[in-house]
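User: I want to check something. If I give you two sequences, will you return the structure for each one separately, not as a complex?

Assistant: Yes, each is folded on its own. Here is the first sequence with its structure:
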Amino acid sequence: MAKIKYKKDDIVLVKSRAGDVIPSIHVRLLEREVVSPRKGNRIDWPGYSGWMATPIYQKEIEILKKEWSIPLTKVNKDPPIHVRLLEREIRPPSKGNKFDWPGYSGWTATPIYQKEIEILRKEWSIPLKKANKDLTFVYDDDIIKKIT
């Protein structure tokens, strides 16, 4: 069987890794993820690859939510919000007792616009309250673009 080459913004039908009983849904491919194999403390972690994707049909989301308690709520990606980056944070990979933890990098940040906070609270149940007061963490990969 020939391997199909997918690209960003392709719409594909995907099945759940949890089993064939959960219905397949249509998604838009957003970004390719490739993770290399890693040496662990007790086990070696295999590499893997896949796609970040977003559902495209609200009806399919509603079926997954109602019948399978899968917490998808809206078509497309989470809404972007404007934040002020406050402090850079870099954590190198570390060895744990049972797991090896991958490193990460990002920023402590605060949302700028109260209107965006209201949308996040209403639509996504995200517990932010005050613009320029509440703190959150933003991974480097989640930053879309610099505004000012």
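And separately, the second sequence with its own structure:
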Amino acid sequence: MNRVDTPAVAAKRSHRRLWYIVASIALAFVALAGSCAFAISRLDFGNLNFGPLDLNATPGVYTPIPVPRSACRYLRRVHDTADRSGQLWVSAAFGSLADRKRNLVTFRLLEFDFALQRAMPHVPVAVRRQLHETLVQVRAGERELRRAKSVSAYGIATIDAVDAGNRSLGNASDLVGHACGFRLEPRLDFGRLMAPT
């Protein structure tokens, strides 16, 4: 009788082992899902904004600090030169700025460089740091313009530098707040280039 019962008992044991394995795998998946749910619940999604993309937006992480009113004339020059060089960059990177305009682009970058240098001694240290970060990116653009084969190649090669410089200028603007009555960073006009002609 033992010989007849043995295969049935062995089959029962092998099914039991299979159920233990399946239950262990299911338990592992449940534990993994619970861990993921816990980790996701700890994330802060309060600052996410899935609205329209604004290429001119700055993070807005800085709160305004006191800035002397006498600095505003220097900061106005920073804004104006940033606007002129920024619009030329947009035309170079996404438009059809002719190579014969290379001297104009060079002049506008040097003008922006000089305006940043002139403004830095007149602003608080926190604003000065952000202006210096912008100056570093402007100088990277100046170097790239000298070695680029065309104005369009300069525009494409400096996308990251322009983004970082505009972000630093926006941070400086956040620090200045409403003390001067204007934002420092330019509103880069991409819509003019994307509009149907």
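Because they were folded independently, the notes below concern the second chain alone. The mean pLDDT is 82. The chain has two domains: 1-43, 69-194.
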